[in-house]
Amino acid sequence: MGRTAAPAPRSRPPPDGGAAHDPDRGSGAEPPRRASWLPRLLVVLVCTGYLAGAARDWGSRGLADFMGDFGLAGAALTAALSCFAYACGTGGRNNRSAWLCFGFSSLMVALGNGVWGWYQVVRHTAMPEPSIADYVFLLFAPPAIVGLLLLANRPRNLAGWLCLALDGWLIAGSLLTLSWSLALARTAHGHEGSLALAYPVLDILLISMVLGLRFRSREGNRSAVHTVIAALALTVVCDALFTSAAVKDSYHSGELLDAGWFTGSMLLAWAPWVGGRSARGARPPAVRPRVASTFSALTPYAAAGICTAGLFYNALGRHQLDRVVLIVACTVVFALILRQGIMLLDNVALAQRLARQEQHFRSLVQGSSDVIMIADPAGVLRYVSPAATGVYGRAAEEIVGTRLPEMVHPDDLGHVLWEVRRYLAQSPNEEPTARIECRVRSGAGAWLDVESTVNRYRDGLIFNCRDVSERVRLQAQLEHNAFHDTLTDLPNRALFLERGRAALHGRDASGQVAVLFLDLDGFKAVNDSAGHQAGDDLLVQAARRLQESVRSGDTVARLGGDEFAVLLVGGVDEAEAAEIAERLRVALSAPYWIGGEELTVAASIGIALAETGITPAKLLRNADLAMYQAKKHGKDRITLYGPELRSDHHRRSELDQQLRTAVRDGRFALVHQPVVDLRTGEIAALAVQVRWRAAQGEVLTPAEFLRVADGGDRAARLARWLVEQALLQAAERRDRLPPPAGRLPVSVPLSAARVTAPGLYEAVESLLRRTGLPGSALVLEIAGGEAAGGRPQHFDELVRRLADFRKLGVGLVLDGLGGASAPLSGLRRLPVNMIKIERGLVDGITDSPFLRTLATSVLRLGQELGLTTLAEGVDQAAQAGLLRELGCRQARGLLFSGPVEQQELDELLLGPGFALPDRTWSDLRTRPFVGVRLDLGPHDETPMAPA
Q1: Cα dihedral 221, 222, 223, 228 sign
Q2: Residue 505 to residue 600: CA distance in whole angstroms
């Protein structure tokens, strides 16, 4: 082949292929890949095939030249493409740069061998000296050296960088001294120019990097690193053999030496894809640092030994010491001395830093409030921090030498041993620490709750212990508070239902479970009269009486307020449950002495017996329904839940469910009752009432279905719907009927709670603006009981809201004035412009002088205050005549008309009005009243509950 210089390194050793991206491993980096046996087998077969062909000289000289040139170029090109492909797909920046460097290095080898093959195989001419191939081959080593540096674990300080440089020169200088003595001196004297020396010098630098950085590579894909180093080392060895005169003089393309270069290139091509070993499959982490530190310590001395061998060889084989050997040897010695000085200074600084850190950590350990203990494999404590005195109440020296099982509570010992064995059986990577809680004996003999964090330490364990007794006590207290009433310390609803669930789950056919629901009658009066503190004391005494009156095994719970529940278990039947309930009723009804004052309450009790498949919540609800039935029938009594209560509850539930969708489905309808002017007989206004046709065909009045709704949100929605429909129909009549029939105001009854409910005022304001009706088109009748007798804060809110409605021009009527439900004091602040005399006063006005006098006073009061007066329930002509004489302005009742629907209402509005009595009321009592419409048919008025 006639190569004039050392053969270009055929393959470039890529550094740790996995190591470059492995520094990120463990934080989302690419997981290690295991090398498949198929690629490995393919590499082995290819390299073996090339070796077999080279051993037989490929059978012909032409094929040998082709395989020695283009075969090596193809192998190097494969390595370059493999490194480039891996670099484009990997994630770490340093790792990608390293593989790009190795790819460029291999590309130079492929280009050099390709040029050589062009001259030797294609053109059949000798290579010029020097040639392009020589310069291209020179570019192999520098990128490989840069790639190794990128994969190396870089020093962290200046001393580390200096030592790395000195180690590199020690290795390179030693190898150069030995090589110069053996062969390079003759090579330098036998050739002109410097190319002959460039190849071996670069090889020496490369092998120095391999040896110097072998144990400085980053932790990661070790298999890839080892493969790269093997490829690089094989290439350098082949270069060194080619440099020797014995091999060089007999070398020709395609021989066994080319098989070494070919194998190096194929190893480099495979190296990036070898994959890394997982931490579990790798050797113990302590082995590598130990080997690395040993090699680092021996590196300068080994280099000095090699340099000395070179000197001896040069001195013994020659009469005159070679100048190059002398200079290089001196620099090696100087580098060794300088390195030792740097290492000495660095070791001194490191020792001082370690001393400071040791003092720092010793202060942390000794000053920590946690107890740090180290136990050997036998469980004997070998170290205990001074904090043990404050935590355990025992000196640390006294605890040292104690076995751990002797300190742990016997009931917790099994759990602690199991946790320790389980922790030691796990891999450190899967479970680096463990946490164990147990009780530990203190110096005073008490048991402390201790939480320990366990870590591995050589062959033993480190325990970081802290006293958590206060936290455990607080946690137990919180758990107790979560399931007990804070005032009486009785179980609360949650614990009651849990115990009920357990009792029902364990109940057999021969046993029964019962629940008693108790409510204290008159407790609110005690709170209002004696104060809340007295009420709390009464509840505490009541709870104590309940606990003393039930059997052992039964549960007494406070559900809230003055409501209690008792869970009876253990074969109780109806008779026994009633007997226990009576005993509880008597005990609760006995007088209470609180603050020197005698207070009394009674108890209404509902009993519910468990049925098959019933839940604790449903059983409690049944007892609750029975208790309400007891209150309904007079209080201070006991009621057993039965089928009739179930049926009534079922009907109420059905109606309640239907009421939820009644407005949406259009099941409500409005009826109107005329309000007559007692001076002219004309209709002055229309009173609105609502009817609901239930799913069963029943027509229910508000007094009936609002009891089902129990007020609340559904009642508020119904009130808004009632006002909206009344105004919309009033606007429709305005457009359809001529005045004054189409301009009559509509009167809507509302409770005080509905008037102050959020959204009603805004809805009225919006409707008036949308329909174009004046505010006077709406009149609100406020129930007097809530308006005048409500609590102060509610009354203030009602006054503010009514003032807002007055600003809109809405008429306001105080309903039922003069009765017990609306005393006259309600007029003092309410901004009403009309008062309505209740039906009870009107019914007896013609027969009772007292009621007649009272009505006279109310009407005169209204006249003096400038308020319009309205009488409700005028069913007789005598009543109308008397009210007219007394000055009442308006009236409504069956004397004129009951509530009517739309068609009949139109007839009344377009008619001549109503005839009024032209005699005095005393005459009307004895003479028939002719000309007044009396419609007592299907429109008989049902008492209207305000919405």
Answers
A1: positive
A2: 39
Tell me if the bond preceding 130 is cis, omega within 30° of 0: yes
Q: How far apart are CA 900 and CA 890, in angstroms?
A: 19
What confidence tens digit (pLDDT) does each residue in 566-599 have? Answer: 999 877 888 899 999 999 999 999 999 998 889 9
> What pLDDT does residue 23 have?
34
890-892 vs 868-872, strand pairing mode: parallel
b/e sequence 506-528, b meaning 16+ C-beta within 10 Å: ebeeeebbbbbbbbbbbbeebbe
- Output the DSSP codes for 115-165: HHHIIIIIS--PPPSS-HHHHHHHTSHHHHHHHHHHHB---SSHHHHHHHH
Averaged pLDDT score across all residues of the chain:
77
Ramachandran area for residue 609 (φ above 0: left; ψ -120 to 50: alpha; else beta)? beta
* Residues 842 and 883 sit within 8 Å (Cβ to Cβ): yes
How many helices (H) and strands (E) in the chain?
36, 21
Strands in 602-609's sheet, in edge-to-edge order, are 555-560, 563-568, 514-521, 602-609, 638-640
Question: 53 phi and psi, to 5 degrees?
Answer: -65, -40
Burial 261-271 (b: 16+ CB within 10 A, else e): bbbbbbbbbbb
Supply 303's token pair: 């280099």
Q: Alpha-carbon distance 800 to 623, whole Å? A: 42
φ, ψ for residue 573, nearest 5 deg: -115, -175
pLDDT above 60 for 188: no
Helices 532-549 and 523-530, interaxial angle, to 10°? 140
Most confident listed range (220-229, 290-299, 493-502, 795-804): 493-502
Q: How far is CA 688 from CA 259, 669, 905, in A?
A: 111, 10, 12
Which amino acid is it at 140? Answer: F
Q: Locate tokens 């980096």: which residue?
A: 29
Amino acid at 713: D
Q: Which of 82-91, 361-370, 479-488, 891-900 has the lowest mean pLDDT?
A: 361-370
d(CA 668, CA 146): 90
Distance (Å, whole) CA 609 – CA 684: 59
Give the Cα separation of 329 and 316 in Å (integer): 16
Structure tokens belonging to residue 394 = 């025992």
Cβ burial of 59 (10 Å; 0-12, 13-18, 19+) is: exposed
**Spatial contact of 185 and 318, defined as CB atoms under 8 Å apart:** no
According to DSSP, the β-strands at 834-837 and 868-872 are parallel
Q: Is 863 exposed, middle or buried (0-12, 13-18, 19+ CB in 10 A)?
A: middle
CB neighbours (10 Å) of residue 448? Answer: 19
CB 780 within 8 Å of CB 811: yes
The structure tokens listed for 318 are 């020659």
Asked whether residue 819 carries a pLDDT value surpassing 50, the answer given is no
pTM score, whole prediction = 0.43
- Alpha helix segments (H runs only) across 590-667: 616-632, 643-665
Mind listing the pLDDT tens digit for each residue in 326-380? 676 777 777 777 777 777 887 888 888 888 887 777 777 766 778 888 898 888 9
CB-neighbour burial class of residue 241 (10 A; exposed 0-12, middle 13-18, buried 19+):
middle
Strand ranges (DSSP E) for 784-897? 811-817, 834-837, 868-872, 890-892
Could you please report the per-residue DSSP string of 660-722? Answer: HHHHHHT-EEEEEEEEEETTT--EEEEEEEEEEE-TTS-EE-HHHHHHHHTSHHHHHHHHHHH
Question: Which of 100, 144, 205 has the alpha carbon at shortest distance from 10?
Answer: 144
H/E stretch holding 604: strand 602-609
- CA angle, 312 as apex, 309 and 313 as ends, to 5°? 85
Specify whether the CB–CB gap between 691 and 944 falls below 8 A. Answer: no
